[in-house]
Amino acid sequence: MDLTDSVILITGGTGSFGNQFVETVLRRWRPRKLIVLSRDELKQHEMRQRFDDPCLRFFLGDIRDRDRLYRAFQGVDYVVHAAALKQVPAAEYNPFEVVKTNILGGQNIVDAAIDSGVKRVIALSTDKAVNPVNLYGATKLCMEKLLIQGNSYAGSDGTKFSVVRYGNVAGSRGSVIPIFWQQRLTGKVTVTDPRMTRFWLTLERGVDFVLRSLDLMRGGEVFVPKLPTMGIMDLVEAIAPDCEIEVTGIRPGEKLHEVMISADDARLTRELDDMFVIEPAHAWWTTERAWQGGRPLPDGFVYSSETNPWKLTPAELREMLERLGLPKVVERRERALRTVA
Fold first, then answer.
1. Can you give the CATH number for the domain in which 285 is found?
2. Is a pLDDT exceeding 60 seen at residue 23?
3. Cα(330)–Cα(230) distance, rounded to whole angstroms?
4. Phi, psi angles (nearest 5°) of residue 12
5. Among 193, 180, 155, CA closest to 282
6. Known catalytic membership, residue 311
7. pLDDT in tens, 69-122
8. Which is the catalytic residue, given 33, 43, 86, 128?
9. pTM score, two decimals?
C-alpha cells in the first residue's frame, strides 16, 4: 500500500506506538496529512519539536468525545486506532473510566468512521483480550467485537474495519524492561512470579505489522503475528544477572501465561508463514473475502506463551536489548513519568 498523498489519522498518537508510527510513515511516504489525535498537549508539543514536517496535524481530543471525532475524521482515508487506557492495576481500580475509553470510545470510532467515509480502520488490541481475567482485557475484547461487527453497519461498500492483536512491546511505557534496568542499579530486582511468560515484540515490528495488516485487510479479520516468547527469569538474567531477586506475588488481574489464539478462535483461523488471520463468523464474510491461501489449524490448537515453541534465550534477549538501546528506553520512561507528575 502506498500512503503517499493520503490522509491518515492515528488516535492515541502521542504514545510509544504513535511516535514510532509517525516516524515510520514519514520515512516511507509523503502523506497529504498525518493527523495525531490525543488528549495531552505537552506530548503533542514534544512531538511537534521532534517531527518538523508540514504534513503533520495535531488535534487535541478524546475518543470519548463523539463530536470531536466527527470533526477530526472529515476527509480522512485511513484510521489507526491506538488510543486506550492500558494499565491493568489502574483499570481494576477505575473500571468506569476504562469502559468509557476502551469500549464507548471504540463505538465512537466506528460511528464516526462510517459517517465520515473513512476507507479503512485498523485497531490495536492485545493478547489480554483472549480469555480475559482482568477488566483491561475484557474491554479490549469488547473493542475487538465492536470494530469487527462495524463491518455489518458499514455495508459491503462502506468503511472496512479490522484488528491487530499482539503481545508485550519492548521499550513501550508499560514495559518491564526499563523497570528492571533501573532496579539493577540497586542490586535487587522484583519479580511477580518466576514462572511467568509473555509474547514479545519491538515497537518497530509492531508498527510494521500494523501497516502490513492495513494493506492486506479485507474487513473483519483479526491479525496475529507469530512472535517469540520470553520467560521472565530469562529477561532478568539478560538485564540483571547478578542481582538479588525478590518474588512479590502475582498482581490482581495478571496471568502467568498469555494466549493470543484460543481453541475457539482456532476454528476460524488461517495460518500464514509469519502470521495468523482470524476470520469473522458472520454472514457478511463471503467466500470472496476468505483467506484461501492460508492453512487451517488443527483441532484444539492454542497459541499460548507457555507452549509457544519459539522462545527467546537470554543471549537473544541481550542482543535485542542492545538494538533497542536501553538507556534511551529508560530515558523515555522517565520523561513519561515526569510528564504525569
1. 3.40.50.720
2. yes
3. 20
4. 60, 35
5. 155
6. no
7. 999 999 999 999 999 999 988 999 999 999 999 999 999 999 999 999 999 999
8. 128
9. 0.93
